Amino acid sequence: MLARVARRLLSFTPEEKLVYEKLTKQLKPQQIEVRDISGGCGSMFAIDITSEKFKGLSMVKQHKLVNKVLQDDIKRWHGLQLRTRSE
What we know:
With 87 residues, the chain is α+β, with helices and mostly antiparallel strands. The chain has helices spanning 2-10, 14-27, 59-69, 71-74; strands spanning 31-36, 44-50, 79-85.
């Protein structure tokens, strides 16, 4: 698993890496996947994240938490696909 994560980190675009690092620092996820789905221009992302910080929160509140962490970045994006879960 660690090798797969390390290999994926090496293939991140700069914007994917920025998003990944912000979410990891703030939400301490057990699982996270960040993908630029805009064709590489950094304007649309798909994020799949599992975090204990979401425990007891509705999906709307989970999404608001992610949006707060990424609020400065989201302003530049055209879209975001977000999937959140707690474990």
